[in-house]
């Protein structure tokens, strides 16, 4: 995929980053105190304006993918009517897990700002995001959640047809 | 987080894996031919029964997180009424990107079966999932989508309060 690098606008300075992050921290405080999930939250900002927001609601929604960043990205895409968030910056209460980092990557977000580290989440919340990063460095079959390949020969024709279709989905 | 390893039930054999994967491949064919997204799809199976399914609808839903696996995990959680898919196996048309792999990890899925590789998706679809894996191996600030830490000192009190709260969300 042709990835377009989209840095924060030059007009966004340190004071703006801190202002958005303080709002993110307040959101994290509210969702965690409500018992909806961990103290995680995120904002998506474009041209200095908030275009999407989300908080962790894993418990409340019974959805393990309902992290603040994924939720904020989905909200921004809905608000802007596109799957492409080129030109946007993400502010997140905590260092993004691989799910959220890759979500931002697919959304073509240009840069991420975070406050708490994996180590904070591990030390105070018993969330261990870094082990997933470590697992991703291993071959598929050797991971704690192992992945095994089967039926490769049966899906190859589908990919070849997809590649040969000039009207295929591109994104 | 206390991760519970949940291997595929011993009663599930090669024929079952192939049967589920053939259904996944058919789903991938349908969604890609409809132009809804790439040829990606997934099933979640528990005790030999399908409990969730999803296809890639990034284009159709204008949502970059709408990959087959994430969609199937959300569907299974909704159907089973829990964020915890311990004891489930995931079948996916393509090797999972970090977003989808981490989604499965958070959902406590026990094992993953896939048919197409990152290389197939790159060669025939111009999707390059492996570069995200590569980015995750780099320090935050050196990634193509860089992540910068700010206001650490302002979020620490929130984490300390969370850690000290006996009624905090646990998952």
Give a written overview of the molecule.
The structure is a homodimer of 171-residue chains. The first copy, chain A, is α+β, with helices and mostly antiparallel strands and 171 residues long. Chain A is globular, with a radius of gyration of 18 Å. A 4-stranded mixed β-sheet of chain A has the order 2-1-3-4. Chain A has 7 helices and 5 strands, in the order αββααβαβααβα. At the A-B interface, helix 1, helix 2, helix 3, helix 4 and strand 4 of A face helix 1, helix 2, helix 3, helix 4 and strand 4 of B.
What attributes characterize this protein structure?
four-stranded mixed β-sheet; 171 residues; globular; alpha+beta; homodimer; disordered N terminus
* Continuous helix count of chain A: 7
Biggest sheet of chain A: strands, sense, closure?
A: 4 strands, mixed
The percent range for strand residues of chain A is 15-25%
Mean pLDDT of chain A, to the nearest integer, reads 92
Shape of chain A: globular
Q: Which value, in Å, is the CA radius of gyration of chain A?
A: 18 Å
Largest interface: A-B, 95 and 95 residues
Estimated structural class of chain A: alpha+beta
How are the strands of the largest sheet of chain A arranged? 2-1-3-4
Q: List unreliable stretches of 5+ residues of chain A.
A: 1-5
Q: Classify the helix fraction of chain A into a percent range.
A: 40-55%
How many angstroms does the end-to-end distance of chain A come to? 7 Å
For this structure, the quaternary state is: homodimer
* Pattern of helices and strands of chain A: HEEHHEHEHHEH
Tell me how many strands of chain A there are.
5
């Amino acid at each position: 995929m042709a990835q377009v690098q989209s840095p924060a606008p030059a007009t966004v300075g340190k004071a703006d980053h801190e202002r958005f992050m303080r709002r993110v921290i307040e959101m994290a405080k509210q969702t965690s105190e409500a018992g909806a999930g961990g103290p995680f939250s995120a904002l998506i900002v474009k041209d200095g304006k908030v275009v999407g927001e989300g908080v962790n609601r894993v418990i409340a929604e019974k959805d393990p993918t309902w992290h603040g960043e994924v939720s904020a990205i989905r909200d921004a895409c809905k608000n802007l009517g596109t799957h492409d968030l080129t030109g946007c910056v993400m502010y997140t209460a905590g260092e993004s897990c691989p799910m959220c980092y890759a979500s931002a990557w697919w959304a073509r977000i240009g840069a991420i700002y975070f406050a708490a580290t994996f180590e904070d989440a591990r030390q105070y919340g018993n969330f261990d995001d870094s082990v997933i990063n470590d697992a991703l460095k291993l071959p598929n079959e050797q991971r704690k959640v192992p992945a095994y390949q089967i039926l490769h020969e049966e899906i190859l024709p589908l990919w070849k047809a997809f590649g040969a279709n000039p009207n295929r989905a591109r994104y």
